Amino acid sequence: MNIIILLVVCAGLVALRFVPKINILGWLAGWWIAVFVFLRWGIDPPLPTSIQGMFVAILTLALLAYLSANSAHFRFVLDRFVAFTTQKKYTIPLLAVIAVLPCLVALRVYFDVTEGPAPPLSSRTIHPPPPTSIEVAGNTIDLVNDDNPYRALETEDPAAFEEHVENGRRVYYENCVYCHGDDMAGDGLFAHGFDPIPANFQDATTIAMLQEGYIFWRIAKGGPGLPSESTPWLSAMPAWEDFLSEEDMWDVTLFLYDFTGHRPRAREDHGGGGDH
Amino acid sequence: MKLLARRLPSGVLLFLMLAGLALVAFWTPDAWAQEAPGQVEYRSFPVVGSRVVVWVIAQLHLMFGAFVLAVPMFALTIEFIGFRNGDKRYDDLAYEFTRLLSVSFSFTASLGALLTFFLFILYPRLMEYLVSIFDWTFMLYACVFFLEAVFLYSYYYGWGKMPKWLHLVIGLCLNLVGIAIIFIADSWLTFMNSPNGIDAEGNLLSTWDAINNFTWMPINIHRLIANICFGGSIAAAYGAYKFLGAKTDEERAHYDWMGYMGNFIAIAALLPLPFAGYWLGREIYAFSQSLGIALMGGTFSWLFIIQAVLIGNLFLAANYYLWLSMERIHGAERYRKFTKWLLASITVCFIVWATPHSLVATVEEARAMGGSHHPILNVLGVMSAKNTAVNVLILTTYLSFLFYRRANKEATVSWAKTGNIVQFGILAVVVGVVIFLGVYGYFVEASVRIGLSIPQVSLVLFAMISITIIDVFMFRKAKILGPIEWGKIPNRAQYALFFIAITFAWTMGLMGYVRSGIRQHWHVYGVMRDTSVDAFTPTLGYAANVVSVTVLIFFAFIAVVFFLSSLAGKKKLDAGEGTSS
Fold first, then answer.
1. Partner residue opposite A59 with nearest CB, options B293, B347, B360
2. How is residue B364 annotated by DSSP?
3. What does the alpha-carbon distance between residue B544 and residue A271 come to, in Å, rounded to a whole number?
4. CB contact under 8 A, B197 and A62
């Protein structure tokens, strides 16, 4: 957050309250500009332009609703608009507007076409849907019904559980740390060579939202095992089933949750019919 | 056209048109002549393909079905209110709503027949399997549909021609049968998403378990509520259409009231709808993580962003209509100062709800953010934030209703000041706790976080119910500051009603596609694969285009319904020499 911009915007809005005889158009324009400035320059790192555009569109819609929800305001603006477009005294400003608008559009087009080449925007999907089951080293893993086979040890045999977590730690620091980083924030040594960068497991919106079977599937099958829907997935993750044992992959899953302090998403009871 | 409409029932006309189209489309005798019975899994449909034709017709059937099943619910309620308080206006309004049913029912039946033909012709293997699971329910459905026709036409044509109590009983039966229809049809489509009552090979073990599958009841409840929303919004759009064409002040007043009532019904049902939708999503996730992720975090998650934008617009338009409606009420000026705060709340909630989890960004923007998640906006992209936003949005809309309700009233009870403080206190505490639970959700595991939605919803419902009860008692024998001048509302309010109806239809189409599409390359998820040429998930843009065209077709049909319903009104007017309402 850019505090200076935030303070300037707030000061501008406070000042707006003290502008004598400000009409509804001035008030709306003031708010629109203030929010636009904040969204454009007040947030660090900057918001993507797609999000800025969406927020500004919502804001514009809301301000137009506010204007037209009051007939007195609406009539005032309509009267001003009619006066501006029909009265002789406004001929020069009107001509100026008529001349400036296409120039602005032309300017926008100019900037668009003179920008350097860039890959097209893509609406990346963050969680690929997993299959119902996968084959790993000849074993079928049921991703719908099976849990991490060592998770139960957490309560049944804590010492054995700790051994699995320690094995997971070894696996992680031998294989995963280079991309996912020392503290699993997706900022390993190699991370910035990738686009997109590796997942940040510290983020409460990644592994904390998923069941362990999902994590196991991602580790085992990696980028090559991503589904054919919603491509391109753009993942450089290797299929670790070619390098690690099934136990190692379950263990590193335990370690990811243990290290970050997140809990895997638990299975839920449902209110519907019987078992599938 | 008028003559034709009088001579032939509109449904027959439509059915003939659609049947003709189907015949032309299927005129491929050479290919079919070589088919061996029982060996065909799929047949193709020219130009648009089998999937799109079934998709469009199913959606159109569903939209008309939703309207036909919903209108009797509120028509009966309004008729009952008129019966209890003796106010003929309510009876007239209920009749006017019902008048839309006759033509719509014919459309629904014709589209349903067309859908059935297309499904059996284009997807014989799937239909053979579904019949093997649900055999007797198809029979039951046909019988119940027949009963629906009997009750619906008795209800419509029997208006004013039989004792009121008997008419109300027929209306009740109509509604019960309508609910049975939707529940039966829901069992088929939910089985395809969350199959149950079958063995590992897909053979039937229990028809009841197949019906009572994981998502059956959530869909039933979600659709019932959504149907009321949709029916109310279409009825309100009819009121708006008539209002804009009204010639006299009486007509304007009547159709203004009709538009208001339709919108009231739509928005009242809209308030609990997100809760029902959330329950459905949760059940889908509980049934299968794969389906849940495809729905909310994967392939289809971008459609939820579009849905958020649409529903945000719906809430904005609903509030906008209420604020404009207050212009026809003397005394409402007192509440105008609150509009900007209500709008600010709606805008913030709208922004939170519409913020995606992973953002559309250029490579430079993504590098600046350190990935596809923005460090600040990231927290707005998950359900904790969105649940909180929608709960506050619902409370804000409720507040607009509350201001509308008391716009021309001044409480005269001695405890009015205390009552206001208590109401405000309840609202403030509930909003505070809802926001607290939303933030708290980030610090607990996923299953606990999901569970927090229940206290959030319960608190919002508690606030709405308790504040309403206090309000009802507080404004008994209230001083009336001025009349409600029905008909004195700006025309742009009527366009807001059109906007609401179209947005509802679009949202229904979009979400219907998502519910069905999450199966991806399965006809019956995990049981019967889709091996047709359409066994791929269309791009989001293509899907949105199909839904949009379907909505356009639906509103073209609805325009016909409005037109034919107006003709029926004119005939009555001519016969009664202008004495009809």
1. B347
2. H
3. 32
4. no
Of B540, B543, B547, B546, nearest to B508 by C-alpha is B547
State how far residue B338 is from chain A, nearest Cα, in angstroms.
Answer: 11
The two tokens of residue A146 are: 């099976």
Which of B359, B376, B527, B534 should be substituted to probe chain A, the one whose Cβ sees the most A Cβ atoms within 10 Å? Answer: B359
Q: What tokens were used for A73? A: 């305001």
State the sign of the Cα–Cα–Cα–Cα dihedral B486, B491, B492, B498. positive
Looking at residue B21, its pLDDT comes to 56
Residues A267, A142: Cα–Cα separation, whole Å: 14
How far is the alpha carbon of B522 from chain A, nearest alpha carbon, in Å?
Answer: 12
Q: Would the CB atoms of A274 and B196 count as touching at under 8 Å?
A: yes
C-alpha separations of A136 from A140, A216, A256, B134, B143 in Å:
6, 10, 20, 37, 51
Among B283, B293, B294, the residue with its CB nearest the CB of A272 is B283
SS3 B90: helix
Residue pairs spanning A and B at CB distance below 8 A: 219
Peptide bond between residue A196 and the one before it cis (omega within 30 degrees of 0): yes
Contact criterion met (CB < 8 Å) for A58 and B339: no
Question: Is the model's pLDDT at B458 over the cut of 60?
Answer: yes
Contact between residue A69 and residue B339 where contact means Cβ atoms under 8 Å apart: yes
Token look-up 């509930």 returns B430
Residue B571 pLDDT exceeds 60: no
Instruction: Confirm if A109 and B279 have CB atoms less than 8 A apart.
Output: no
User: A46-104 pLDDT, tens per residue?
Assistant: 898 889 999 999 999 999 999 999 999 999 999 999 999 999 999 999 999 999 999 99
Residues B494-537: pLDDT tens digits? 999 999 999 999 999 999 999 999 888 899 998 999 999 988 88
Judge: A127–B215 Cβ closer than 8 Å, yes or no: no
Q: Are B245 and B569 in contact (CB under 8 A)?
A: no
SS3 assignment, position A18: coil
Q: Which sign does the torsion angle of CA B387, B351, B379, B433 carry?
A: negative
Tell me if A50 and B350 make a contact (CB, 8 A cut-off): no
* Strands of chain A, DSSP E: 133-136, 139-142
User: How many angstroms separate the CA of residue B206 from the nearest CA in chain A?
Assistant: 11
Residue B195's nearest CA partner among B215, B219, B180, B220 is B215
Which residue from A47, A118, A126 is facing B297, i.e. has the nearest CB?
A: A126
Quick check: A187 and A181 in contact, CB under 8 A?
A: yes
Q: Using an 8 Å Cβ cutoff, are B528 and B202 in contact?
A: yes
Give B382's contacts in chain A (Cβ within 8 Å): 204-205, 209
Q: Which residues lie below 8 Å from residue B565, measured CB to CB, with a gap of 6+?
A: B99, B100, B102, B103, B238
User: Above 0.85 for ipTM, yes or no?
Assistant: no
Q: Report the C-alpha gap between A126 and A230 in whole angstroms.
A: 10
Q: Which token pair is B482?
A: 């001025």
Residues of A in contact with B365 (CB under 8 A): 46, 48-49
